[in-house]
Amino acid sequence: MRYRAVYWICFPVLAMLLFNLKYRFTGFLNGLTDAGYGLSFLLIQFLFLWIYFSVKNRRMINLTNDYLGLGDILFLIVITFYLSPGNYVLFYIGSLILVLIYAILQKYSLEKKSNKHIPLAGLQAMLLALLMITDHLFNAFTLYSDSWIYILMS
Q1: Rounded distance, CA 132 to CA 24, Å?
Q2: Which ranges constitute the DSSP H helices of the chain?
Q3: pLDDT per residue over 52-63, tens digit each?
């Protein structure tokens, strides 16, 4: 907790556990297909981020040096193995907005901290845990399927 770090072994274990959950609900092929869509979306996002910051700095940059932590990237990769493509995009955008609001409130709070880093993966993990618990208790939506999104849109 003090170093805001996670052992690397936790990410593949979490990916396997989340994929096992999804596999039980949707099947192996559908789980892999959805993960492929999520990974493609994430790859495109990172490509655009890399291009933006490289152009802004007028040199090639490494996203993990100053902009994103490796844990943030690994967490975003891991959750593609559970969330459906639509839910992944909604979670990605929604969690980034909530983390941004948190960061703004933290910056302007009375308690001035010297740490400029935002615990993105940690906050996203807490949000995902809350969503998974809510989904399990109330069956309000299914995180592993986009069916609730289609029903809501029709």
Answers
A1: 15
A2: 10-26, 28-57, 63-66, 70-78, 85-107, 120-138, 147-153
A3: 999 999 999 999
Long-range pairs, 44-52, Cβ under 8 A, ≥24? 45/92, 46/73
Cα 75 to Cα 73: distance, rounded to the nearest angstrom? 5
Q: What is the pLDDT of residue 119?
A: 86
pLDDT in tens, 31-88: 999 999 999 999 999 999 999 999 999 999 999 888 888 999 999 999 999 999 999 9
Assign residue 27 a region (left: φ > 0; alpha: ψ between -120 and 50; beta: otherwise). Answer: left
- CA–CA separation, 41 and 142 (whole Å): 20
Domain boundaries defined on the chain: 10-153
pTM exceeds 0.85 for this model: yes
Q: Please, are residues 81 and 26 in contact by the beta-carbon 8 Å criterion?
A: no
The SS3 of residue 104 is helix
CA 51/CA 53 separation, integer angstroms: 6
Neighbours of 144 (CB within 10 A): 22
